[in-house]
Amino acid sequence: MTDLTSTVDTDLSARGEPDAELISQVWAAEGRLVDPPLAAEGHNGISDMAATVQQQFPDHRFRRVSGIDEHHDQFRFA
């Protein structure tokens, strides 16, 4: 779980800054992020989504406040 925890926390940091390099480190090139009401695919799409959120909420930072539930190659967290 440590690798997944590190990956999730790095992703949350990348979405708060948005850092395309960090996004490419934690997302597969064909990765799909669904975080209602938004969804994005690929490094560019996920990076663009993070930039959109930062434009609407400058200086907002994401942080995980729960453990990570993982099952059948899917995971969730708060």
Strand order of the largest sheet: 1-2
Topology-level CATH name: Nuclear Transport Factor 2, Chain: A
| Strand residue content | 15-25%
Summed up, the helix count is 3
**Helix and strand element order:** HHEEHEE
CATH architecture: Roll
Number of beta strands:
4
Assigned CATH class: Alpha Beta
The residue fraction in helices comes out at: 40-55%
Report the span from N to C terminus. Answer: 16 Å
Low-confidence stretches: none
* Major sheet: 2 strands, antiparallel
| CA-based gyration radius | 12 Å
Number of domains: 1
What is the averaged pLDDT score?
88
SS-based class: alpha+beta
Please give a structural write-up.
- The chain has one domain (2-58): Nuclear Transport Factor 2, Chain: A.
- The protein is α+β, with helices and mostly antiparallel strands and 78 residues long.
- The strands form two sheets. The chain has a two-stranded antiparallel ribbon. A two-stranded antiparallel ribbon has the order 3-4.
- The chain is globular, with a radius of gyration of 12 Å.
- Helices cover 47% and strands 18% of the residues.
- It has helices at 2-16, 20-26, 42-56, and strands spanning 32-35, 38-41, 69-71, 74-76.
- The mean pLDDT is 88.
- The longest helix has 15 residues, at 2-16.
Q: How would you briefly describe this protein structure?
A:
The protein has 78 residues and is an alpha+beta fold.
